Amino acid sequence: MELSKAASQSPGSQEFIAKPCALRVGIEDSALNKVEPNDTLEKVFVSVTKYPDEKRLKGLSKQLDWSVRKIQCWFRHRRNQDKPPTLTKFCESMWRFTYYSCIFCYGIRFLWSMPWFWDTRQCWYNYPYQPLSRELYYYYVTQLAFYWSLMFSQFIDVKRKDFLMMFIHHVIGIVLTTFSYVNNMVRVGALIFCLHDFADPFLEAAKMANYARRERLCITLFVIFGAAFIVTRLAIFPLWILNTTLFESWEIIGPYPSWWLFNALLLILQVLHAIWSYLIVQTASKALNRGKVSKDDRSDVESSSEEEDETTHKNNLSGSSSSNGANCMNGCMGGSRLAEEQGTGKATGNLHFRASPHLHSCD
């Protein structure tokens, strides 16, 4: 079972911890209104398309004797119905925030007393005949379980824009964790875990602030996250981790077949770090210029595809204007996209703020 889903839905974590926190910061526990049942539209939605074009809308309008505008609204509300409510996303982020914070504290507390934390050359002395302590074993098993949970959840959650990059990242993480454990490279593996866990709590905290509509706090936390991510992934990772895996290990134990694979995976990981850092800088600069965080392209922007959504709605609405007149244009053109985004709560993107427009009824 996917760990984050299990934790966020369990009575202990959601009912007694995450949910009360969400309610306290103003996130409503309101069930999403289900769309009016219609077998014909449901069949089109499930089997054909979630974004019907103008021609299909007119055909459905004649078949059902509904206005084009009403059918547009039905599809919009039906899409919103499949999205998780804000309360669920807050609980999910709170669970991940708790995990990242706890595992980082555990790792740094354990590693602080280890000589190879201060001198990375100690990672390779007497290799591969290095004892595996109980603390290090628990650290590895917990991290591997969490990476597997992220891998499975990718195919269950709403599809993200960087799905492929995250999939590669999770595969590399699982392979590196398993490979380093089998080859007893657990010392340098523990350093990699600790370094990667440092920035993630700030991202999850920024998401929670976003869901709670704490805009300034969200911006502050996201900027802190961006700075922490760039420093740890683009500076410390190559100077501390890659230096010891590429050069110090070569000097002390020399290259061997698995050495090449291990370092190749780490270099691929570094390329992903550079790509994500670029996207984070873009998002942070836009946030500072506009005074709000629009989206985080690193990992958690829901890819219901904004471009596709906006284009489709504009095309649909231009077609509906001929059938429904100026009232439909005034009622749906300005608010259709925003209404859909706000159908599941106060914020749909994980880091996505918009002003609430005056939305007209679709009835």
Automatic annotation (TrEMBL):
UniProt organism field: Mus caroli (Ryukyu mouse)
Keywords: DNA-binding, Endoplasmic reticulum, Homeobox, Lipid biosynthesis, Lipid metabolism, Membrane, Nucleus, Transferase, Transmembrane, Transmembrane helix
UniProt domain TLC: residue ranges: 88-289
PANTHER family: CERAMIDE SYNTHASE 5, LONGEVITY ASSURANCE FACTOR 1 LAG1
Protein name according to UniProt: Ceramide synthase 5 isoform X2
TM regions (residue ranges): 97-117, 137-156, 163-182, 218-240, 260-281
DNA-binding found in the keyword field: yes
InterPro entries referenced in this protein's UniProt entry, alphabetically: HD, Homeodomain-like_sf, Lag1/Lac1-like, TLC-dom
Keyword Membrane (UniProt): yes
Region (Disordered): 295-322
